């Protein structure tokens, strides 16, 4: 998986929304929607998207943003933004490290589901240098001309000098219809090859202030920008009406969501002939002396426990019922194959994972040193946060004696 940084820009004032907290104006990202700040809504469940997350906020709001990010379960660097969105993106880029890909996302698009993130990441992985989620335009669109008029009396009053003519604006006159089939509305997250995005910002210099999104700066370099389907739920909360729509959606979600938990356990003995695989990672001799895990597949007990937890939550049996125990096509198969099959099975019934927690029991490999990596790999696999913990069982039992590895997983899934 390529190294990706996600920049969440949240440093706008939100003048068009005009939110207040305790009677004082508050930047939009810190205004509450259904009792939770816009920034927290934007960050919830986003951890899997990138290896590094940078949140850009109005100067003075860094500490509050760090608390919000922690509550949302996202490990983020928080930096102060600038006067324009482009300035804020630039501040985020400076903190994004040397990731190969960068995704820039508006906190104001706080209800964006996982799909656009997934599509943008997939397009970058496939080699695109710039990717933007877009929606078709649904209204009839026309250009307009400004209609001006010279009214001597009003001109005189306006100019304070009798008889002097001055133009004043009467209104707008409709011009030509623009073919909406050729138009698209731009959303975020917008994804880029990091070097190209940095080059675009350098080339734009101070002129970046006039840009309303990042893709147009990249396009100005002559680089191709790929469009992928956006999502209606990724709308930007800009006005009061948008805020009401967001509140209504959140209320509906709170009222309608069905939640279920499930549990899964798997054990594999050491003694396999294939690679040493566990928790979606390959392990080397140093971290894991001796043979890999025995089994018909690759023996990844963590993935298998997750599969059982997902299936148990949805009431769909267990891994044996899903993929069999000795199907020839699954000889040596990686754990990801079974996780995907489980996601498909629960998805067919309308379920999606909310989060998964796994405990690994065994003498080796030690989970701690590669916990972050394992969590990222599994979270990307599931499209939901996965946490991984490890214990040695103090030498007790078969796994404590170093005979194999056991994993216990719990899953929370939602529907509706
Ligand atoms: N100086 C700025 C301006 C905007 N943004 C971010 O860019 C995204 C899109 O901007 P929008 O929501 O339209 O911005 P605001 O500037 O907050 O709103 P308004 O124009 O109504 O003041 C938002 O997540 C906003 O926080 C930013 O990080 N820094
Ligand atoms: C980046 C953006 O969300 C794409 O639609 C939009 O351009 C932000 O613009 P704004 O002027 O900050 O509202």
TrEMBL record:
The record marks 16, 28, 296, 392 as: Transition state stabilizer. GO terms for molecular function: 2-C-methyl-D-erythritol 2,4-cyclodiphosphate synthase activity; 2-C-methyl-D-erythritol 4-phosphate cytidylyltransferase activity; metal ion binding. Its cofactor is a divalent metal cation. 4-CDP-2-C-methyl-D-erythritol 2-phosphate binds at residues 266-268, 296-297, 318-320, 391-394, 401. The record marks 180, 236 as: Positions MEP for the nucleophilic attack. It catalyses: 4-CDP-2-C-methyl-D-erythritol 2-phosphate = 2-C-methyl-D-erythritol 2,4-cyclic diphosphate + CMP; 2-C-methyl-D-erythritol 4-phosphate + CTP + H(+) = 4-CDP-2-C-methyl-D-erythritol + diphosphate. The keyword S-adenosyl-L-methionine does not apply. InterPro entries: IspD, IspD/TarI, IspD/TarI_cytidylyltransf_bact, ISPD_synthase_CS, MECDP_synthase, MECDP_synthase_CS, MECDP_synthase_sf, Nucleotide-diphossugar_trans. Keywords: Isoprene biosynthesis, Lyase, Metal-binding, Multifunctional enzyme, Nucleotidyltransferase, Transferase. Its EC number is 4.6.1.12, 2.7.7.60. Binds 1 divalent metal cation per subunit. The keyword Lyase applies. A divalent metal cation binds at residues 266, 268, 304. Pathway: Isoprenoid biosynthesis; isopentenyl diphosphate biosynthesis via DXP pathway; isopentenyl diphosphate from 1-deoxy-D-xylulose 5-phosphate: step 2/6; Isoprenoid biosynthesis; isopentenyl diphosphate biosynthesis via DXP pathway; isopentenyl diphosphate from 1-deoxy-D-xylulose 5-phosphate: step 4/6. GO terms for biological process: isopentenyl diphosphate biosynthetic process, methylerythritol 4-phosphate pathway; terpenoid biosynthetic process. Residues 260-413 form the 2-C-methyl-D-erythritol 2,4-cyclodiphosphate synthase domain. Signal peptide: none annotated. Catalyzes the formation of 4-diphosphocytidyl-2-C-methyl-D-erythritol from CTP and 2-C-methyl-D-erythritol 4-phosphate (MEP). Involved in the biosynthesis of isopentenyl diphosphate (IPP) and dimethylallyl diphosphate (DMAPP), two major building blocks of isoprenoid compounds. Catalyzes the conversion of 4-diphosphocytidyl-2-C-methyl-D-erythritol 2-phosphate (CDP-ME2P) to 2-C-methyl-D-erythritol 2,4-cyclodiphosphate (ME-CPP) with a corresponding release of cytidine 5-monophosphate (CMP). Homotrimer. PANTHER family: 2-C-METHYL-D-ERYTHRITOL 4-PHOSPHATE CYTIDYLYLTRANSFERASE, CHLOROPLASTIC (PTHR32125). NCBIfam families: ispF. HAMAP family: IspD, IspF. Belongs to the IspF family. Belongs to the IspD/TarI cytidylyltransferase family. IspD subfamily. This is Multifunctional fusion protein. The gene is ispF.
């Amino acid at each position: 998986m390529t190294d990706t940084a996600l920049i969440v820009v949240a440093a706008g004032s939100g003048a068009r929304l005009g939110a207040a907290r305790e009677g004082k104006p508050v930047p939009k990202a810190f205004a509450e929607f259904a009792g939770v700040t816009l920034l927290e809504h934007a960050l919830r469940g986003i951890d899997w998207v990138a290896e590094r997350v940078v949140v850009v906020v109005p100067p003075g709001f860094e500490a509050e943003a760090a608390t919000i990010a922690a509550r949302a379960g996202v490990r983020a660097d928080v930096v102060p933004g600038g006067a324009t969105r482009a300035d804020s993106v630039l501040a985020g880029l400076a903190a994004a490290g040397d990731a190969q890909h960068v995704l820039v996302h508006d906190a104001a698009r706080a209800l964006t589901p996982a799909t656009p993130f997934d599509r943008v990441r997939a397009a970058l992985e496939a080699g695109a240098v710039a990717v933007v989620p877009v929606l078709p335009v649904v209204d009839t669109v026309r250009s307009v001309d400004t209609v001006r008029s010279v009214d001597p009396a009003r001109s005189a009053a306006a100019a304070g000098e009798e008889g002097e003519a001055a133009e004043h604006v009467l209104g707008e006159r409709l011009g030509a219809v623009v073919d909406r089939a050729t138009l698209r509305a731009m959303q975020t997250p917008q994804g880029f090859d990091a070097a190209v995005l940095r080059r675009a910002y350098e080339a734009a210099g101070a002129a970046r202030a006039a840009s309303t999104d990042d893709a147009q700066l990249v396009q100005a370099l002559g680089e191709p920008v790929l469009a992928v389907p956006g999502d209606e739920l990724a709308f930007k909360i800009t006005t009061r009406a948008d805020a009401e729509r967001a509140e209504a959606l959140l209320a509906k979600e709170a009222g309608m969501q069905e939640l279920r938990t499930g549990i899964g356990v798997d054990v594999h003995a050491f003694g396999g002939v294939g690679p040493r695989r566990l928790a979606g990672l390959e392990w080397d001799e140093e971290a894991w002396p001796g043979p890999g895990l025995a089994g018909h597949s690759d023996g990844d007990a963590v993935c298998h426990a997750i599969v059982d937890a997902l299936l148990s939550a949805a009431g769909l049996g267990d891994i044996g019922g899903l993929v069999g125990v000795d199907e020839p096509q699954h000889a040596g198969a990686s754990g990801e194959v079974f996780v995907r099959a489980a996601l498909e099975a629960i998805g067919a019934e309308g379920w999606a994972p909310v989060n998964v927690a796994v405990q690994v029991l065994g003498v080796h490999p030690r989970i701690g040193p590669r916990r972050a990596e394992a969590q990222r790999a599994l979270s990307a696999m599931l499209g939901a946060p996965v946490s991984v913990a490890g214990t040695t069982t103090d030498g007790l039992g078969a796994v404590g004696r170093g005979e194999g590895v056991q994993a216990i997983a719990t899953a929370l899934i939602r529907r509706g």
